[in-house]
Design goal:
Structural class: mainly alpha
Order of helices and strands: HHHHHHHHHEEHHHH
Largest sheet: 2 strands, antiparallel
């Protein structure tokens, strides 16, 4: 079912690309013509400021021009991913330097994020028994049954419609807004795909594909470590992830201790920061007993998966 839906979306994308190229060209022409007509009307109004018909005409042209610009802006926002223009056989030193520079940047980005997002140590399959000896908070049978219950059609639809419509570009090009406005057509397939995943635990690579967007952590980034990676997932993946998240959320208060002040609704990570500042104030003045303070490597904790 996953392959079937992905194939349908891929075939639809070809048609939409052709339609998009035609419509964007038409909208650009319309916006230019509307701006020219508005300029002509306002030029006449400068000469005849009391002409009532020209005033009415100006209002109509302003409305038409702003509407055309809004539609064009919405279309361009959907195409806002950075893409290289095809330069054909252009033989210039600038072109080849740009291409070579781009390749080097890509290689360095891949090397860097493979290092911090990969796993450099072998996975120990016996770690579960070790952790069970030190973890005293576990979910109950009722909570386990709640999280493992069957996924319903309404649950999938509600989650899909709760997603932000245009939050980020998806790898397949279809954001949540597309699925919402075409739910009567694609809803049945989406429900089948999501339910199939929860039955089998298998996910097609095309559904699991992501775009890694780099967000600067400092004002003038010059190295890869100055960027934080943000993963942009396909809408189908987001639906699955949010269903899992919604089921886990009610159980978090029972398994995360109160001193862990983040990642739970109603708690703030700033509380522990203020607590540490208070504890460290005058820490060095009282030397009556030996003491030790440790600083956690926050970069490793938040930027690395290892």
């Amino acid at each position: 079912m996953q392959y079937k839906l992905c194939s349908k979306l891929r075939n639809l994308k070809k048609v939409l690309k052709t339609l998009n190229n035609d419509k964007v060209g038409e909208l650009t022409i319309k916006s230019i013509e509307a701006k020219a007509a508005l300029d002509d009307c306002q030029h006449l109004l400068d000469q005849q400021p009391l002409h009532s018909n020209l005033r009415i005409r100006e209002k109509e042209l302003i409305t038409y021009y702003t509407t055309t610009l809004k539609v064009e802006e919405d279309l361009l926002r959907q195409k806002s991913r950075i893409q290289w223009l095809k330069a054909g056989d252009l033989n210039s030193s600038f072109f080849f330097k740009a291409i070579n520079g781009d390749i080097l940047v890509k290689k360095e980005a891949i090397r860097h994020f493979q290092t911090i997002l990969g796993c450099s140590r072998p996975i120990s399959h016996g770690i579960g028994s070790t952790l069970s000896n030190i973890i005293d908070k576990v979910i109950s049978n009722e909570q386990a049954n709640f999280m493992g219950r069957d996924v319903t059609d309404d649950e999938i639809r509600d989650v899909c419609f709760s997603l932000y419509p245009n939050k980020a570009p998806d790898p397949d090009g279809f954001n949540a807004h597309f699925f919402k406005i075409t739910w009567d057509i694609v809803g049945e397939d989406v429900i089948s795909v999501v339910q199939e995943f929860f039955r089998s635990g298998l996910l097609l690579k095309k559904v699991n594909a992501i775009i890694l967007a780099l967000v600067p952590k400092v004002p003038n980034p010059s190295k890869m470590k100055d960027f934080r990676s943000i993963s942009c997932y396909n809408t189908l993946y987001k639906i699955i992830a949010k269903i899992i998240g919604n089921r886990i959320k009610p159980c978090l208060l029972d398994i995360i201790i109160p001193s862990q002040s983040a990642f739970v609704a109603g708690r703030s990570i700033g509380d522990n920061i203020l607590l540490v500042q208070k504890l460290m104030r005058n820490y060095h003045k009282d030397a009556s007993c030996p003491r030790l303070a440790l600083k956690v490597d926050l970069m490793k904790a938040f930027d690395m998966v290892d």
